[in-house]
Amino acid sequence: MRQEDRKETEIQIEYIKKAAALLSEKETEAGRKLRACVVTFGCQMNARDSEKLIGILEQVGYEITEDENADFVLYNTCTVRENANLKVYGRLGVLNGYKKKNPGMKIALCGCMMQEPQVVEKLRTSYRFVDLIFGTHNLYKFPELLVSVLSQEGTIIDIWDKTDRIVEDLPVKRKYSYKSGLNIMFGCDNFCTYCIVPYVRGRERSREPEDILAEAKSLAQDGCKELMLLGQNVNSYGKNLENAPSFAQLLEMVCNVEGIERVRFMTSHPKDLSDELIQVMKRNPKICRHLHLPLQSGSTEILRRMNRRYTKEQYLELALKIRREIPDLSITTDIIVGFPGETESDIEDTLDVIRQVRFDNAFTFIYSKRSGTPAASYEDQVSEEFISAQFDRVLKLVQETAREQAGKYEGLTMDALIEEVNESDPTLVTGRLSNNCLVHLPGDASLIGSIIPVFLRECKGFYYLGERK
Ligand code: SAH
Ligand code: SF4
Ligand code: F3S
């Protein structure tokens, strides 16, 4: 970590103490404990950021709750598709109702959506009850912003358009004791033409390998068995560092950390996936048998217009090579339907790739126009009727292949990391296999966090019923 970044951590820790003093005054005034709630929208990165935000709120002295009728409510937002934004506006109305009954309540917003100037403008003019707005680049300043919001009235807006800083070692409250996300890089430089992430998360910045390993060690000492290395494109890890290991080497280094039994990663861009990575995955049993390899489209022409920098044939060659090399690996993907200019013949190409690769699971999204991205100004936007018909075709095939794939392991015994007591049937626990499939088996809370062999008795479509071996 750079000297100036370390210094910033110390500064923010001082602010945590100040915020704690302010909060305790407010608690004395109110005559009760004050409660804070953080709601997370979007991806794994946001989930990890929320753990940091909750860690700070907890350290400041708030009682953490999932109830949004609280004294401090923070929405960590996503803007990857339009419906993510609409959800936030809808729920803000509900929060305003709570605030009318609890005037001391503070409402805060952060995350990707706040990096869009038109969003902040709308909030400033039409959602004036919001107390604090900050973005993705100054998340580490949260303690300082919290001090401001606790000591003054009026909306505080602090959005930066970029940062080159990586400030670490602030408090974190992990959601699960036995598994954790671990950021290896931030931002994205790929500029796929439909995607807003590079604009709201900034340029790609990798963390130093020593910092990543130190965090992995400390998580392991804290009881964590499974790590998920996080980045928008983990395969280009290290581009901005000197003498950095390749992603494949980094993966092995993390696997060697004592106490870490499983390592996953998310996400891989097909254009940068190396043979070295395939070989490392093949030989290292700690690396989970799961690869998320977003396809987006099977049509070379659409891929070109998406700026994905691979063709249908290149994707197929890569995916089929991985299937050959590691037959028990599950491959999942993301697909967008309705990109500008997409025709039925492009959809045929997508269906063809699904048939050939037989994805173990796929997230299918309807194209959402994001203002500021190149594709938003393409003139050949396609009609809603076309999209909904094609979306159904893609979804149907994806579900069929995924169901066939899931059945493959019926009758085998595999290791599962037990994650939780089953919500609908408390006599069962739910475990995750290395290939990311879920299995429900008889058991109780004492099994949570252990990795045990489970007999996969019956495949129920997308999960298994099993029993302990
Ligand atoms: N960095 C990851 C993706 C992050 S966004 C990667 O490149 O794989 C997660 C998924 O959201 C993408 O894979 C894409 O399928 C989808 N997505 C992104 N922008 C979208 C848009 N404008 N409309 C619909 N889906 C989108
Ligand atoms: Fe978006 Fe493409 Fe970057 Fe993924 S790689 S975050 S889809 S720009
Ligand atoms: Fe959404 Fe931001 Fe993640 S836009 S998908 S929360 S990086």
Radius of gyration: 23 Å
The largest sheet has its strands arranged as 2-1-3-4-5-6
> Which geometry do the CA atoms define?
globular
Q: How many E strands?
A: 19
Which structural category fits the helices and strands? alpha/beta
The small molecules bound here are: S-adenosyl-L-homocysteine, iron/sulfur cluster, FE3-S4 cluster
Count of helix runs: 13
Share of helical residues: 25-40%
**SS strand fraction:** 15-25%
Distance between the termini: 45 Å
The average pLDDT is 96
Largest sheet: 6 strands, parallel
Unreliable stretches (pLDDT < 50, length at least 5) are none
Write up this protein.
This protein is α/β, with parallel strands linked by helices. It has helices spanning 3-30, 44-60, 82-101, 117-126, 142-151, 197-201, 209-221, 247-255, 275-283, 300-306, 312-325, 344-357, 384-406, and strands at residues 35-40, 63-64, 72-77, 106-111, 132-134, 156-158, 179-183, 185-186, 205-206, 226-230, 262-266, 290-292, 330-337, 361-366, 413-421, 428-433, 438-442, 451-459, 463-468. The strands form 5 sheets. A 6-stranded parallel β-sheet has the order 2-1-3-4-5-6, with helices on both faces. Helix 2 links the parallel strand 1 and strand 2 (63-64). The longest helix has 28 residues, at 3-30. The model has no long low-confidence stretch (mean pLDDT 96). The site of iron/sulfur cluster has 10 residues, from helix 6.
